[in-house]
Amino acid sequence: MRTPRTAVLLTAGLVTLLGLPAAAAATGTAAPATAVGPADLRVNNGPGGNCSDERAGRGISVPFCSISAAAKVVQPGGTVWIEPDTSYPDELTIDRSGEPGKPITFAVRGSTFRSYLAKGLTVDGASHVVIRGLQVSGSTKVVRSGDIELDRLNTKADADREGLVVGEGSTNVRVTRSDLTGVRIDGGARGTVLGRNSVSGLINKTAVTVADAPGTAVTNNTFVTTCEAALAVGGASAGSSVHNNVFFTWDNPRCTSPAPRTGIQVAADAAAGVRADYNLITGPVVKMAPYTWAGTAYPTPAAFTAATGQGAHDLLAPNFEAVGPKDRSPTIDSGDPTAPGVLPTDYYGKPTADDPRVANTGKDGGYIDRGAYETQDRLRSVELSVTPSWAPTGTKVKATATPDSLWHSELTYHYDFGDGTDPVVTTKTTAEHVYAKPGDHVARVKAVNPAGASVYSSQIPVKATQAGVLTTDFTVDQPLPTEVDPGARPVSPLTVVVDPEQLTAAPWPVVRTWVEFGDGNVTVTDGLRSLDNAYRTPGTYTVKVTLEDSKGAKSTATRTVKVGYAPSGYVATEPFRIKDSRTDGKPVTSARMLDVTLPAGHRIPDHPLSGSMASAVVNVTVTGATEDTHLTVWPSGQQRPATSNVNVRAGGTSSNTVTVPVGGGSLQAQLNSGKAELIIDFIGYYQPNAGDRFSPLAATRVLDTRTTGGALGGGKTRTVKVAGVNGIPADATAVALNLTGTGAKEQAHVIAYPDPAKRPATSNLNVEPGKDKSNQAIVPVGPNGTITLFTNTGSTHVILDAVGYYGKDGKALFTPVVPKRLADTRTTGKVAPGATTTVSGIPGNALGAVLNITATDTTAPGFLTAFAFGGTLPAASSLNTLPGMTVPNHVTTPVANGKVSIFNSYGGPNHVITDLLGYFTTG
Questions:
Q1: For residue 113, which of 85, 228, 585, 820 is within the disulfide window of CB 3.0 to 4.6 Å?
Q2: Which residues make beta-bridge pairs with 173?
Q3: 8 A C-beta contact, residue 615 and residue 685
Q4: Kindly report the CA angle at 239 between 236 and 244, in degrees rounded to 5?
Q5: Taking a C-beta distance cutoff of 8 angstroms, is the pair 143, 162 a contact?
Q6: Confidence band (pLDDT; 50, 70, 90) for 6?
Q7: What is the residue-averaged pLDDT of the chain?
Q8: For residue 373, which of 353, 399, 402 has the smallest C-alpha distance?
Q9: Which residues of 29-49 are buried (b: 16+ CB within 10 A; e: fewer)?
Q10: What's residue 113's pLDDT?
Q11: Model's pTM, two decimal places?
């Protein structure tokens, strides 16, 4: 690469033409910064511009509404800054002049957008003027003016006029990096430069006409023209030159002339004074004559050179699709860097660049491209690695950059090590650094190619540590879910995260982590990272973490961790069936545990629910038992507890609500003897950071059809008001009810549900003639604070006792427990009629508890009522006792001082068994 020489050659080309330094002649640089100077003005007629054309008494912060008004008052050295993407309906005439070295400049702020002139632009009798960034509809004219620069313009021709006219004796007009359609330079204009422009012509129109315009330089433009010549030079145009251009000449059915399509046409009266070289002409070969010189057409550069001495380095490219700013184009590195009017940057402001893959065939080994566009190296990316990326302070680390570029040209690297020190700037792909202080740093490298294009690497973490020995320490956290979206990442209820990253002192990188979770699970992973474990059972565990670093050192730490269920809110759902052995052929037996899938996440089609539910509320029905038996339900993965949930007689049907923690997305069920059919309906679930809180109530009678409304008939419904009455607020979302059926005429089932128009295919209570049967239900509140009752056949009286409600203003959250037996009077003696037994063992801060209460060895019909210890006995029941039968029921009751009282009615003595399923606290 020969950048210094090229810079000299480019400057020489400008001096040859204009006798001025390159910067003053045709800078070709990017748009200047938009800082407003003391002599600058602003124009903004856009929305919010708050413009005014009244100059007197106005500060610079108030813009003009029109460019014309600003043009009348701008002073030499001042810039009129035009807001981008604005439109101006008036014709703009500039007739004020700057001074040498202090031009008047009109520039659109920034470089991305152009502003629009609707009726043309005229520079008349002015000098030392720069115009940049305008899109002009109508003709752009420069007449009787000198030292004018037109940069980044967009001009359009029509059938009657050219898009740009330079004439009437104008001197030193420079048109650069613009989109031009139809250009005419005539009338004695001298020293005009067309450089790095995209030029097109209308059909049957010449793109650029030069007539009687001496010293015109047409350099590094890209022409696209149809039918007529791309460039026509005639008249007294001595000293003009045509260099480094690319001409695309096209045919079209609408062409009116049958003559061959010409790239360069020079009339006889101008031929002696015009020089042409290093141009490239391309297009379809049919009807193409690249040159017409002094009236003679030449089909090839060789013929043209032989006859005229011109164009010795011109190219005729038969494959026009390979020409342009693209890889391996013949335009690359083949131009004349000393050509008159040459610019150091291209149409886009990119600098001249040397493609190292292409031989430099330009003049004197130069590498400027032909045409308006300079092919650039495509610097795609750069990657950074730091070795070691983890080490004690004082250790020398090495950063290595790996660039990805098209040309593999020499790059400059700026290594930023992220510790506040100055970046290391070098052309080497490696740099070394020593961190002086401990800390977590982020290293990054910027790669810059010779054209100024740059890319950054991704940020690379680097850890500088305190010198010392490896010392393991860790934290243990029990994460909680934050959403109920079935698609969200599930968080199991007994999950813990062991994190050694924050507390461990590790001078060198940790290469391996072992975690023994204390439940038999051991996880080994590479590196230093946090690990999680989902325990199957609440409890206290000893967690052991062992780390090994890159130097072979090991360190171990242990910690005792208490794992438990978190307080949760209740999420009510529409009831749906998740198990029916009568249809799936898988009954429950005493011989083996039956696994029942819960609707966590997407496990059950058509019923996606949160994958992070902590406990489930289900209604369990056992029917067709082969012998007297009881069913136990418990979380999957845990030991079977010494409790029961449903008791059933041989051939009978019995149901009960069960609240059970979620274990691995399923629950287990097993009989103590015999075999039976099992039906399970899903009612709702509890989850941390979700759902509603619960407020327990002393059992309150809501409905008794024996005194109000009469029995519920088969196939009939009954609407019952449950919210906005009996201490339950109107905005309650669900109510907990004890549902009792009595006086049934035949075997049937009762359903309690919220929407009278959507009765679920589930049940809450199975009733039988001659037996009082009860079951607890959690029912979402329906329209106007009501629920609906339905029985399928016969008739039955229904009694509803409210024991609590769920809502946004609820008091407590639910914490499930592994089913735990609190009391069993079979070891202490029966509860006499009219007597009360006290059950303790509930956490002292509990407001309410969820119990499974079982009455057994009953001698006479009666009922049990659970209520808060020390409280008033409510006029309601929790379960109904039957002689010779064992009757369980899911009971929710207030708690005081960790105790509940259970009252036995006057029917006869009973044994009472109480199991704890969970409790409510203020969370």
A1: 85
A2: 148
A3: yes
A4: 120
A5: no
A6: very low
A7: 91
A8: 353
A9: eebeeeeeeeebbbbbbeeeb
A10: 60
A11: 0.63
User: Are the CB atoms for 137 and 117 separated by under 8 Å?
Assistant: yes
Quote the tokens at residue 433: 């650094």
Torsion of CA 317, 322, 327, 330, to 10 degrees: 0
Q: How many CB atoms lie within 10 A of CB 855?
A: 27
Q: Range with the lowest mean pLDDT among 32-46, 670-684, 706-720?
A: 32-46
Amino acid at 117: L
Map tokens 């290595």 to a residue: 400
Tell me the C-alpha distance between 481 and 494, whole Å. Answer: 11
| Pair type for strands 140-143 and 164-167 | parallel
* Cα-Cα end-to-end distance for the chain: 74
Distance CA 247, CA 229 (A): 10
Residue 11 scores a pLDDT above 90: no
Q: What is the mean pLDDT of residues 624-632?
A: 95
Strands, sheet with 539-549, edge to edge from the N-terminal-most edge strand = 522-526, 510-516, 539-549, 554-563
Strands 836-839 vs 900-904: parallel, antiparallel or unpaired: antiparallel
Which residue bears the tokens 């009807």? 287
Dihedrals phi, psi of 305, to nearest 5 degrees: -65, -40
Q: Which residues pair with 837 in a beta bridge?
A: 902
Instruction: Return the pLDDT at 54.
Output: 81
Phi/psi at 783 (5° precision): -60, 135
Rounded Cα distance between 194 and 207, Å, is 12
Q: Reduced to 3 states, what is the DSSP secondary structure of residue 269?
A: helix
Q: Kindly report the backbone phi and psi dihedral angles of residue 32, in degrees, each rounded to the nearest multiple of 5, phi listed first.
A: -70, 165
Residue 230's Cβ-count burial label (10 Å; 0-12, 13-18, 19+) is buried
Question: Residue 842 in contact with residue 897, Cβ under 8 Å?
Answer: no
- Strands 666-671, 629-635: pairing is antiparallel
Amino acid at 900: V
Stretch 296-302: mean pLDDT: 93
User: In the prediction, which pLDDT does 57 show?
Assistant: 34
Tokens in use for 748? 């049937």
Contact 314, 302 (CB under 8 A): no
Strands (DSSP E) contained in 152-216 are 154-155, 164-167, 171-176, 179-181, 183-185, 193-195, 198-200, 208-211
**Quick one: three-class SS letters along 426-466?**
ECCCEEEEECCCCEEEEEEEEEECCCCCEEECCCEEEEEEC
All residues at 6 or more sequence positions from 638 whose CB lies less than 8 Å from its CB, including other chains: 536, 537, 661, 663, 668, 818
Separation in Å, CA 31 to CA 60, 103, 131, 343:
21, 15, 11, 15
Q: Distance (Å, rounded) from C-alpha 691 to C-alpha 699?
A: 23
Alpha-carbon gap, residue 583 to 454, rounded angstroms: 69
Q: Rounded distance, CA 748 to CA 768, Å?
A: 7
User: Torsions phi, psi of 268, nearest 5?
Assistant: -60, -35
What are the CA-CA distances from residue 19 to residues 23, 110, 675, 923 (Å)? 12, 31, 110, 87
Query: Residue 291 contacts by C-beta under 8 Å, 6 or more apart in sequence?
Result: 262, 263, 264, 265, 281, 297, 298, 301, 304, 311
Contact 431, 415 (CB under 8 A): yes
| 3 state DSSP class of 654 | strand
